[in-house]
Each structure stands twice: as structure tokens, then as C-alpha cells.
Amino acid sequence: MKRLIIGSLSFLILSGATVPAVLAGNENGTLGSLAHISDYTNRITPSNLVSLAYRGYFQQQGIPSYVTLVSAHQMGTINAQELVEAGVNANRLSSQLLTDPSYLSAVEFALENLTSR
Hints:
Blueprint: H1 2-24, H2 37-41, H3 46-54, H4 66-75, H5 80-89, H6 101-115
Helix pairs in contact: 3-6, 4-6, 5-6
């Protein structure tokens, strides 16, 4: 029990020391490094984006789900750009990804893999 208390106190002291350093930001006192954290937390991998679409998470944005999504991609009515736009409109992705060719290419690749199953 004594070890647990000592370990917990050590953890609290160490975590308490790092938080002010992170919040301090740069010399101007702004949150500098924290400003871009939301970009990383909102970023969904291309395969996860396609998986979410397949499971129906973007139906309100006009993206069909399950077999209908596969058929729509095969017929060319749904592509990577439209799926990324749906992710942005659903507040799941940063709008910067709309112009990221590598992300769009990876989404297209994931859609093609979904189609080839």
C-alpha cells in the first residue's frame, strides 16, 4: 500500500511539473505548440474514413453505406474527394485535407480495396 501511495504521488508531481511547461507556449505567452493539436486529434486515417463511411457515419452528408457505397464507388458516383468533403462537413476532418493529394490518394486506394473485397 505504501508503494502505491508513493508511486501515485510521484506520478502526480511529475505530471504537475510538465503541464505548466506545455501551457507556457512560446516567449509571447501564446499557446504556440497547442494550436495545431486539434489538427492531429481530428485527423482520421484514410482507411478509417472509408470504414466509417461503410458503416454509415456519413449518411447525413449524402454518402451511402455498406453495399450501396461499394456500388456507388464502382459506378463512379462516389470518389475520394466527395468522401473527404463529407468528413469535413461532419467535423471529422480538417478542411486542409481537401487539398492534400497524398491523403486523397490514400482514401481512393482504401475505397478501391473496399470494392475489391
